[in-house]
Structures are given as C-alpha cells and as structure tokens.
Amino acid sequence: MKRSVSSLLLALIFTALIIGSLTLPDRAAHATTADIIINIRRDASAGLPYGGAHSAGMSSIVWGSTSANTPLTFTLAHIGGELVTRTMTTDGGGYYAVSLDRLIADDDVLSVTDGSQIIVVPVASLTFQVDREAKRITGSAPGGITSTSASGPHSLQLRLAGTTRQISTTLAGSFSVSVADLPYLAGLLGSLRYTTPSGQNIYKPLFIVDPFVRGQSGDGWADKILGQPDYTQITPNQVVGNRTFNPGSVYVDRSVQPNRVYVLDASNSRILGLSHLGVCAGGSNVGQVCTTHSDCPGSTCPVQTDRAADIVLGQPAFNTSACNGDSAYQLYPDVPQASAATFCDMREEQLSILETGTGATLASDAAGNLYVPDLFNNRILRYNSPFTTDQIADEVWGQDDFAGITCNRGAGYGSLTDNRSLCLAPPPGRGEDKAGVALDPAGNLWVTDNQNHRVLRFPFNAGSGQLAKEADLVLGQANFRSRSSGSGLHQMNYPEGIRVTGSYTVYVADRVNHRLLVFTPPFTNGMSAHHALTTGLNLPMSLEFDATGLWISDASGHITHYTNEVPDRTISVHANGNGIGVDRDGNVLFASSGPVQSVQRFISPTYTLDAEFLDSNGLFNQTGPFGFSSGKGLELTADQLIYGDSQRILFWNHPETLHDYQPADGVIGQPDFHSRGRWQPIYERLRAHNGYLWALNSGAGGPSAVILAYPLPLTSGMQPALIISSPLPLAGGGVFTWTRSMYMGGIDFQPGSNYLWLADEENHRAFRIRNPQTQPMVDVVIGQLNPAGTLCNQGRGQASPSQDSLCHPGALAFDAVGNLYLSDHNLEFDGNHRLLEYDASSLPEAPVSAVFGIPATRVFGRGGSFTRSTCMPSNSDPLCGPFEPSFDQNNRMVIGFNQYVGGPRFPLIYQNILTNPLPIMALGDLHSMPTSNRFDVEGNLYILDHNRNRILIYDLTPEIADLAMSKRVTPLFVQPGQAITYTLAFSNAGNGVAAGVLITDLCPSGSITDWSYAASLPVTPTGNISYSWQVGDLAPGAGGVITLTGIVSADLQGWANLSNTALITSTAAEANPSNNSSSANVIFHYRLQTNVSGGGRVTRSPDQPAYLYGEVVTLTAVPATSWIFTNWRGDLIGSLNPVTLTLDRNQTVTGTFACPPITAADFAFTPLIPRGGQAVNFTAVITGGLLPFTYTWIFGDGSTALTTTTRIQHDFPVTNTLRTYTVTLTSTNACSSQLIQKPIGVQPYRVYLPLLLKGA
To answer: Would you call 333 exposed, middle or buried from its count of C-beta atoms within 10 A (0-12, 13-18, 19+)?
Structure first.
C-alpha cells in the first residue's frame, strides 16, 4: 500500500521547522536566498562514483549545491514511516553530498532546509523493464510528461551508453522508448532522471540484467553454488573459528586476567575474541585457563594452537565472512547498508580477494569495552564488554547511525568533511587501508582518520559518562573541514596507528611520511607535532606500549621497540606492518598475514617465536572439501564436474544432482581434502577428451610445465596415466620446447581429431600436438613465424599486434563447428586483450612439416581491426581482456573478462559471435576473474569465478512455457445414436508460466448433438458447440482435463469419419508450439439390418455387426424349401440375387420370398377296374407348386398312406360284390395343399378252381 504523501509532507515540514527553529520564508527571503539544487540518488550513467558505491554511495545519496558554507538539514520519510535526519555544510563552492544511510525508495519524501527555506521533494516512482531483443525500454514514471527539454520541469530522461533521450509518458505514467540505435544493451549501467516541476532531479540506476531472482530458469542469476555456503560470501576455503584469512591486527586487553586477545581477521570481516590462549600445565593453577605464563605460578601456559575463538564480532556465526551481510554485490550498483551486527574489512567490489587485508590499532577501556576501526564502513565501533554481554556494537563514531557506510558521511573523497565524519577506507585499488584508535587517561577517544590525513579527538563527558560524537580537536589539519596531506610537522599523510601515554603524549604513526609524530599538550587544532621519530621506520603502522616503551610495526617486516624514543630491539617478521599486541608479561603478539596466516607470539625477554594460534598453515581459512582457493580450471563430463583448485583437483560425481555448497566427492594431487601445500605444483585449465582428463600443471619444480592425463572417471588419489613434457619433436625436423609459464595458458582438443592445442603464454604462441597419447609431435604453431620466435607480437611489442601475432595468449577453445577461439591476453595486465578466431578450414590436417604463422580469420573487441592495440570504447563493444569462452550445442558463447584491463565484471552471452559480435545478455552475478566455464548438454552453464572462490551454475534454459494438447475420443468406432466422449488433456511442460491460456474446440454440429463438458480445474467457457475455455495462467508442470460428451445423430448418413481439433494457446512465448493442437478422429460404423419376408434367409459377406462408410456387402437371398426369392425391399430394390450394397448410412434390407401354390392335383390308377385283392397302382399328378410334396392317401376302405413320392400301390379288400371306394388324395407342399377325390369301383373277387378229373 502506498503511503500518504500529503501526511508525509506535513510531517517533514513540521520536523524541519523544529530542527531548524524555522519560520516559513516569505517572497523577500526567497529573493536573497540561493536556490537549493537537489539531486536524489547518484547518476549511474557514467558508471560507479569515484571510490565505489560502498564508500561514495549510490541510492543513499542526496547531492547538489547552494550558497557556499551553508548548513543544510535533510530529512527523509523512509519506508515504514521512519524519519532519517542528516546535516551537512556545503563547501566553499556551495557543493554538498550527504548519505541518508538508507537506499532511498520510490515514494519516500525528502525535505531539505537551509534555515530560511524548506524544499520538500516526493521521490517519484520510476520503474523500467528492458526488452533486449527488441531494444526497447518500458516502464512507469509520473504521468503526463510531454517536455522534450533536457532538465526541463516535469521531464524524464534516459541516460544510457553515453546517450540521452527525453521520454514522454501517458497520463497514467507509462512510457516506451526505443534504444535500437545502441550497439548492445547487455550489462549496461545507466540512469532514469526525472526532473520535478520545481527543478529537482530524481535519479534511478538502470542496470540491464534480469531482475534479481534466484531459481528461475533462463535468467542471468545463478541457481546453484559450490565453494561458498551461500551467495553472499566470496572468501577462500572454509571459514571456521580457528583459522584466519589475512589477519590484520591483534590486541590484548590487559584489564582482565587472563588477558583477553582480539584478532582482527580482516579479510573475513570479523574480530575473533579469545578469553584465553591455553591451560596452565602445572603449578597452583594447574588446569586453569591462562594467556601468559604469569597466569600459572610455578608453571607455564602452553598455547593451544588449534583452539577456536570464543566469540566473533561482525558476523552472525563463525562460518560467515560477508561484508555487511553480502560481499557478493547482489544489489549492484547499490550495496547493503551496515548495522550494529555487521563489519566490513573487504568491500563488495574487491577484485583480487587474496590481495586484501586491512590493519588496525584497537583499544579497550577499563570496563573491558572494545573500540575497533570498521575500516570500509568508515566508522569506529564500541562493543560493550563483548565477552560478558553480547557481540553487537553499542556505539558508533564517524556515521550518524549504524546503517552508515560511506566516506565522510556521503561526501566521499572530495573536499567535504567535518568533525563528525571519518574516511578510513581508500578508493578501490589503492593502499593505505589501516587506521587506529586510542584512549587517553581522561577517557577521550583518539582516531586516526587516515584518508582525511588527520587525527580526531572525541571528548569524554564525565558528567554524562558518554563520549561525544563530534570531535573537539583535530591534528594534521588546520580545521575540521580541510583534508589535504603533507609532510610538515603540522601535517600528515595517511596516519594509522595511535597511542596516548598516561601523561597525554600522543604518538601517531604517520605512515607514508615514514615517521612517528609526537604531540604533547596543550593541544590545539592544527598544531605542529613536538617532534618526529624517523630512525628505522618504513611505513609504520601499528603501535603498542609495554612496561618500558613503545613497539612499532612497519612495512619492512620489523617490529621495533623504542625505549625513551630510542630503538633498542627488533623482531623480524614475515608480514609487513600488521597490528601488534602486548600481553601482561611483555610478550609481543603479531597478526601475520602474507605467507604465514596466523597470530604469532614472541616471548619476552628474548622475543623469539614460541607459539602460533588461529593458524591457517600459510593458506587461508580451512582447507577441505567445501571451499576453494583461487583455481582457474573447470571441466564437465557426463559423469563428473572437475575443478582445478590450485594445488589439487576436486571432482563431484553426477553433476546433474548437485546442490548448494555440496562437498567434493574426491581429490587428486593431495592425500586428503585437508592437505594443501602453498608452493606445490598448480593445476590450471582442464579438458576431457578420449577417456582422459588433460590438465595443465606447473610441474614439480622443473623448468617447464607439464600436461597430465588422468583416466576418466576420476577417483581419489589417482595418478596420471600420461605425462607430456618439454621438449617434443617438431614436424619436419627439430625440437619444440616451452617453459613453466605455459601452465597459465589454454588447452583444448580439435573436434573430431586427436590434436591437442595449447597456449604458450611466455613465448607468445599457441601450438598443436599431434597424437598426444602415442607419438606426440608439434605440427602447427600460431603467433610466431618460425621455431625461434618467442616475442610478443613477433618482437614489435604490445602496441603493435597483427593478424598473425600473439602476445601473452591465455585460454583457447573450439566452438560447436570446429572453429578455434584464442584469448590473446593473460593475467594480470598482459597481452593484446582481444579474442581471435581461426576458421576450422584454416587449420591444416597432418602437415609433413610444421606450419607457422596462420593468420586469424576474425578479431573481436577491436572493431574488426587486427592492428588496433587498445580495446574499443565499452559503450560500442565491451569485449576486452577475455578469458576462456565456452559454447553450447547451438554455438551460443559465454565468456568472462579481466576487470584489471577494463573488461566487464559480468560475463556476457553471445548468441553467435560469428554473425553478431556483440552480446545479447549479461549474467547478473558480479564476478572477479571468471577464468573458465562449461555448458552441459541440457544448456546449463557452469562458470568458475576464480577470485571469488566459487562455481556458479546457471540454468540458461529460457524460462518459457511449453503447452501441449492431447485429444482422444472414445469409442473410436461409433454408430449413429451412440454417445461419444472427447477427452482434452492439456499441460505446461515448460519451465515458465503460460499466461492467458485459452483452449478452443469447434465441436461438430448436426452430426453430433447434445454436447456437454466437464473440466478438472476451473475454466471459464464461452460459446456452445464452438467452445472456448479460458484457463488463465498455467504454472510449470500444471495441466488438466476437459471432457466433452455428445450423441451421434441417429440419422447420420454420408460420413466416413469425423476429425476435429482442439487448440491451446497462450499470450506468452512458447518453446514448442507444434504440439499445441491435437485432433481426434472418430470412425463411423453403420449397421445393416436384414429381414426376411416369407420362407428363406439372407446371407451377407462380410458378415459383421457394423460396417465402415463405403464398405461393400454382398447379400444373398436363400429361399427356404418350396420357396422362391422374389425381390428386395427397404434400402435395396430389385430382384438381383446375389446383390451388392454399399454402406453409407444405417440401412435395412428385406429379402422377400414366395411359395408357388399347387394349382391342380389329380391322380391316376391302374387297372381302372380292379378286383378286390388286386394291387392298384396310384399315381399322383400335380400341377404347380414346388417340391417337396407329401401325399396323403385315404383309400376309403379304412386304410391311409403318407408318401413323398407320386406312386403308391394299394390292395382293396376282397369282396364278392362290387364295391365303390372314394379315394382321397391330399397333395401338400410347404405353402399349399390340394385335395382330390375319385371313386374307384372294385370288382368282386372271382375264384377259378381247376377242373379235377377223376382218375387224373
């Protein structure tokens, strides 16, 4: 919810009136008062301010001008209703710059008053989005801007890449501006500037990278990290409580026994506190804790060399090391503000992490309160008895509150300072990063304000018991507003250590003047020192008293003791000028950085080294499987991620399963994870090829580097299977040699071959080894014209490059099509700072004699000129000081740069550098020497941030939706009148949200009716039959199902099948639109119903329940017995039998059969006049009808017979009289019957007896 601006305005005016005891001015007052020019936030269009955003501020700054030497009061109504007030006096030219110590947010309200006028400025909301492809910037600003006048009232300006554009806005405040004329946008830093109607300017940094979100695919922010516990830390190895990283100072609090020891663990941005150093070995206090031998009467206090600190100040835990909670500069170009719980002794923009290390002279009071210079936050912190209370700072000097971090409270390194400001940290890349504090017997706090070349005294008020926040005395400057350096006794040049004696004599280590200034009371502002000590001093830094005098450490590696200001003994140490402490026994403790990395104790009175603690064994922090230490080599195989971590190789199995801060699975080059020798051979760039890992190695003390080949996959403790060393045979005769520095070069294999390419940094060439595993031989050399050539640019020097020359070449790599890319540049400032490309066709195949001086095909970072010796202006081409490029399968290139020579801090992505030599995208994470990177087959990028000791893994697969539609129908075969169901399954298989998803499906009308639908997730339908379902936004992995049900029309005809398509669309871009539609084909089956009329049947071929559209069926009418087929009825007309029928709808056919009737029936018999007992033959005589017939005979004499034949015999009874019988014949077939009767007369039966003669 936006805050009420009107209420904030009233609150601000009221506050300003109270603070300034003001009355609102009238017109006459305005006439004589200079206008106050107000600029809110710094203008980032020219880059970061001098001194960097940490020291000079960015979005916390208000700057401008008015009358000279005018006190101004600034009040900011900040987020959440917080009111922040600051005061500042303009310089002699009327300029001012002040930090509000809050990142000024949109809709904040600022008031500025000079005592006679109040100016209230609401901070306009300015937003922007960048379309890199379209080269267009859109956003929002105050509405109704039409002015085209630069800096005109109510105007908006875009300031980018050295250009300016006046922008108009709609009444609602939206704007859109083309930047198509700019060569590229990736990683550019610019500003939006809104000028209010009253002429005040509000700036908003515009940094062209993806919005800061982790875990989002396709953007420029890393998704996984190795080597660091999280994205906020950048220090080497593993931060623990008993190791240090460039310890800058040690202080012994002698107010308690045993003495407490504080160690400024500078590059870890923390103070470690140890309540004691050991345990009494014997005597009356045996077993009790101790710091000195005198704590153990009758015995000694052996130092527990490996014990961890008891408390940590400036960090939330012993395993963190971030500056103000984030050393990674994730808010670029802004940095986080400080707090009472944070500390910063290494700024976010630090380029060389190992080459840091501030120093400080600490102090404590009688109550055990600790005073510490927080160097890069430009403040002094007091921790109230941190061993007995908490570890949060309780008081701050040099800043108005604990959030402040800037030099001179926002004025930076210009001409402004005052009696409340401090500037302790140098600009980036500058030395003199040490300061000191001291307390005098009255409790006054003395501070060496080194960048302001002065000492300030903050007085103690005995009545209130408080130290003032405004200094009452300045030494080294004539007043509180000057800050120039000098060598007079009244001047200073980066003062550092300070101590005050019981008699108020003040000793100041005036570092760059190589002297110790001695001030004696009475004190006055700008007074000269009483005298200076110079004997034996070289850049003195830290001071500490012992019982007899003063110890001074300086840059010559000496700690010198002065008695009565005369040097009388010296301790030699390895580090230069770090802080010292003295314990109650007079032992000297020294924070040794450099090659030692521990706190050393020199025992009194001999001052020989007798103990070390917080010992990192000459390295940094704790070596182990989690952390890194400035490796340069990275390789990726299908099975392993491999990293060349200086003196060892680390590897992780199954890289696709990696998670944040995962420990390595194995180590090569060391016996275990915790071993590492500082001066052991160094592994640098790596390549996997033909089943081996090939590693550049500095060699074990030999004169030349070696190439080591390890079988893949790697296992811990593995030894190389092959070593290639100098010299090698040269094709055509002769030998080829190289030196140790070749390990700093590049390595790759030519695709599709067994050619190994190497870059030879010191000899200014690259060369190819043929058959490296069997018979290694050098057959191609580029950069030189003959075997003897070993000079930069063939002897012409760095100012004269050419197409065929090299100077300190570094990394090399092949792209996806076999072209060679060579970084013609090396650490730290060496080389031509350009990228060369050699077409694959220019590289000879197996020459008989060695080939020299192949010219490059293309040059990048030089505007196409092979002879240009300097990088292009960064606004036209940012490629400068390239490291190792890598290419994905589509030839997209990622490359990092050397910031020492002006290369970008953010690695760049090129779509195809052969067709577009300018970047399309910048990664969002700030890097320090990203020396190597790799793509995996999925398009994920692994990039080695060399100086920041981490591997960042980016999912560069664009976060894009991938909608899919699948439509199916059941049943597949359907008959008219049946129900049909369409199932529409849709999903988003992409990794981005599909916005505005719409599903459409034009359902068949007429052929299918009675449609209805159901959905598995909420949808908004429109239409009927022609459906549109509004799904809204569909998240990655989400999806649903819509079912449609209809009834196939019962009278459907003429359709073989029906195919219709469902479509899913989105307003967002899609990865693969080809699967956005899906069709379902339903095949119609038609029924054929056959009926029979009469006696018979109908057969069909083929005989099946249903038929496809157009299928031909043969119908055959088969009459039953005595029946005949007459014709077809229904959907088939005619009498053809058999007949064919083509199915195009449901059809019914009836086969009609007829049974012909018996038209006449008769019978005959013989003999016509039978006698009784005589066989009579009957014969049926039928006319009409069809067989078979049955014949039923009734003979009239009481007998009957049934036959199937026309003939039958019958014997009538014997009779002696004439008898007449009626014979009935019934002739029957399947469909009719005929009866006929006839009378038959039967004669009597006569018996003729033979004549018998007697006697015969």
So the answer is: buried
- Whether a cis peptide bond, with omega within 30° of 0, leads into 787 is no
Q: Name the DSSP class of 196.
A: P
CA 342 vs CA 333, 926, 1156: distances in Å: 20, 21, 118
Instruction: Copy the structure tokens of residue 810.
Output: 């570094």
Decide: helix, strand or coil at residue 1233.
strand
Token look-up 């300030």 returns 456
Q: Check residue 54 and report its DSSP letter.
A: H
Q: Provide the phi-psi class of 161: left if phi over 0, else alpha when psi is between -120 and 50, else beta.
A: left
The token pair at 835 is 């990228």
Question: Consecutive 10-residue runs of the chain (1256 residues): their mean pLDDT?
Answer: 45 44 34 79 95 96 97 95 96 96 97 96 97 94 95 96 96 97 96 97 97 91 98 97 96 97 97 98 96 97 96 98 97 97 95 88 97 98 97 98 98 92 92 92 98 98 96 98 96 97 98 97 98 93 96 92 94 84 98 91 96 93 95 96 97 97 98 90 96 95 91 97 97 96 96 96 97 96 97 97 98 96 95 98 96 98 97 96 96 96 96 96 97 95 97 89 91 87 90 88 71 71 70 90 85 81 88 89 90 94 92 95 92 94 93 90 90 90 87 92 92 89 90 90 71 50
Q: Does pTM top 0.90 for this prediction?
A: no
Q: Determine the Cα–Cα distance for residues 904 and 686; give it in Å rounded to an integer.
A: 24
3-state secondary structure of 52: helix
Bridge partner list, 729? 735
How many CA atoms lie within 13 Å of 1255's alpha carbon, on the beta-carbon side? 0
DSSP collapsed to 3 states, 834-898: EEEEECHHHCCCCCCCCEECCCCCEEECCCCCCCCCCCCCCCCCCCCCECCCEECCCCCEEECEC
As a whole number of Å, the end-to-end CA separation of the chain is 162
Which residue has tokens 């000590």? Answer: 533
With beta carbons less than 8 A apart as the criterion, state whether 283 and 244 touch. no
Helices and strands (DSSP H and E) totals, the chain: 3, 94
pLDDT score, position 925: 98
Residues 702, 258: Cα–Cα separation, whole Å: 50
CA–CA separation, 258 and 678 (whole Å)? 35
> For residue 69, which of 36, 93, 37, 99 has the smallest C-alpha distance?
93
Q: Is the dihedral of CA 579, 581, 587, 590 positive or negative?
A: negative
Task: Name the pairing type of β-strands 466-467 and 580-582.
Answer: unpaired
Name which of 816, 821, 797, 819 is nearest 808 in CA terms.
797
CA dihedral sign, ordered 545, 549, 554, 557: negative
Cα–Cα distance for residue pair 195/50, rounded to 1 Å: 24
| Half-sphere exposure at residue 1059, Cβ-oriented, CA atoms within 13 angstroms | 4
Residues forming beta bridges with residue 566, ordered by sequence position: 563
Residues forming beta bridges with residue 646, ordered by sequence position: 683
Neighbours of 875 (CB within 10 A): 14
